[in-house]
Write a structure and sequence with these properties.
Largest sheet: 6 strands, mixed, barrel
Helix content: 10-25%
Number of helices: 14
Shape: globular
Order of helices and strands: HHHHHEHEHEEEHHHEHEHEHEEEEH
Structural class: alpha/beta
């Protein structure tokens, strides 16, 4: 298994290909203690692709899918984030008019690089809606409507492992509490879908939906899964020797060649090299030596703290008391060089922006690396514009560039950019305006606003 340290970098696809190649060469595939290969049962993903049949060809042709820049995205029913931002900012080839947020808080650095650009682009929408369990900076800053969404104990659902088609177990979420007005993501989808296109939404309940998806692979349904709690596939090792992985029953793997392809037979279709390769990050001591002179530290982000998940749980006192502040981990020698002591507030800065976090001194990182935590906002602060729960002051994604992804369109440099750090004198926890201590960096076109004055909610709604 690997996590975001592989995925959230420009070279992520090649890193993953290399790791799987090593596992195959060493004989670790489909053996005890090795990498599992289950029978395919990605029924949820199958439904996603089937919905495309209800979209008219002329409408499908308008999709923002980055065929030329990121050809792998042409294979799926989704748009490339880089292309989406470009279209939102330029309104070419057409303008977007609405955004809908599914229980996500993207501007409080979770998924948006250069989040102020996304904020300003989304402020141009005619209407934004969200569903969530609590108010967030994204909702307060962008949305006209917010709906309550049910939590995991309040609705029925299916849990799958995050391994693509390697779905070796299914778990049931059984509703235990009455959520009142709140509905699950799926229930809200069904309510809207039946209004817009009833033919595409023939199910009357979440249970019916799950039954239809499960029965494409198994001879039991969602109620049976409820009784089981968890379904684990009967596991047989070395299936590739017995013809159990391929639909034609032949020995081998379910690939075009029947082999584990260290040299991919399909990458050439996307203009990608067939063998994995190393690519220097877009911002690094070697690819941008001039930038490195001004910003001599490698900034990595995304390490997890057990009391939170991305931007979730910051508003829960029992968890917040354990980790009350965003932390940037600095090597002791680096901290000494910059006159920083444990607990000091420091500014992390590069050519894109700045943010403030509290210093944590540890040998966990080497001297030239700093690690900044992400997902920070301050629910105890004012949620109204312009503060938005203090979402801009410790927003490390402000230092992450857009448009720096791999050739296939996957991977973004959350794990490796350049930065510098320095102690912020006079800054106190709870300060609502770090602009007094941290001047906003200039970036982007002149029409861009600075870090602490995104397009105002009032300006958006002057006509009302």
């Amino acid at each position: 298994m690997w996590g975001l340290a592989i995925d959230t970098q420009q070279n992520g696809a090649q890193a993953g290909q290399s790791l799987l190649a090593l596992a195959a060469i060493c004989g670790y595939m489909d053996v005890p203690g090795g990498i599992t290969l289950s029978l395919p049962s990605s029924f949820m993903g199958r439904w996603r692709f089937e919905t495309a049949q209800f979209v008219e060809p002329e409408t499908m042709a308008k999709r923002i899918d980055a065929k030329e820049d990121h050809p792998a995205y042409a294979c799926g029913p989704f748009a490339h984030p880089d292309e989406v931002l470009t279209v939102m900012e330029t309104e070419e080839p057409y303008a977007f008019h609405m955004a809908y947020f599914y229980a996500t808080n993207p501007i409080s650095p979770t998924v948006y690089a250069e989040p102020e650009r996304w904020y300003n682009a989304l402020m141009k929408m005619d209407f934004n809606a969200a569903q969530d369990c609590f108010m967030t900076p994204t909702i307060m800053g962008l949305c006209d409507l917010v709906l309550p969404v049910s939590g995991f104990a309040e609705h029925d659902g299916v849990v799958l492992p995050h391994f693509g088609r390697n779905t070796h177990f299914l778990g049931a979420m059984n509703a235990a509490l009455d959520p009142g007005e709140a509905r699950s993501d799926l229930e809200i989808d069904m309510l809207v879908g039946k209004r817009l296109n009833p033919e595409a939404w023939p199910w009357e309940s979440a249970e019916e939906f799950f039954n239809a998806q499960i029965r494409t692979q198994y001879d039991w349904d969602f109620n049976d899964l409820r009784d089981m709690g968890v379904y684990q596939q009967n596991f047989e090792y070395r299936k590739y020797e017995k013809g159990l992985l391929r639909p034609d029953g032949e020995p081998g793997f379910n690939t075009p060649t029947g082999m584990i392809e260290v040299c991919s037979s399909i990458y050439d279709d996307f203009g990608e090299d067939e063998l994995p390769y190393f690519m220097e990050p877009a911002m690094s001591p070697y690819s941008t030596p001039d930038l490195y002179e001004e910003y001599p530290l490698v900034l990595t982000t995304g390490g997890r703290d057990f009391v939170s998940f991305h931007s979730e749980h910051r508003q829960l006192p029992t968890l917040r008391n354990i980790t009350p502040d965003p932390l940037v981990t600095i090597n002791p020698k680096t901290a000494e060089e910059y006159g920083i002591k444990a607990g000091d507030f420091v500014c992390i800065e590069n050519s894109l922006g700045k943010c403030v976090e509290r210093a944590r001194i540890s040998n966990e990182v080497p001297e030239r690396v700093i690690h900044a935590t992400h997902g920070w906002w301050y629910p105890e602060e004012d949620g109204e514009y312009p503060n938005l729960f203090g979402t801009w002051k410790s927003n490390v994604n402000k230092l992450i560039p857009m448009y720096k992804v791999g050739k296939l369109g996957y991977g973004a440099p959350y794990k490796n950019v350049l930065a510098k750090i320095y102690k912020v004198d006079g800054y106190e926890a709870g300060d609502s305006d770090p602009a007094a201590y941290v001047a906003p960096a200039s970036r982007g076109p002149e029409s861009m606003t600075d870090a602490h004055a995104p397009l105002s909610y009032e300006a958006k709604h002057d006509d009302e």
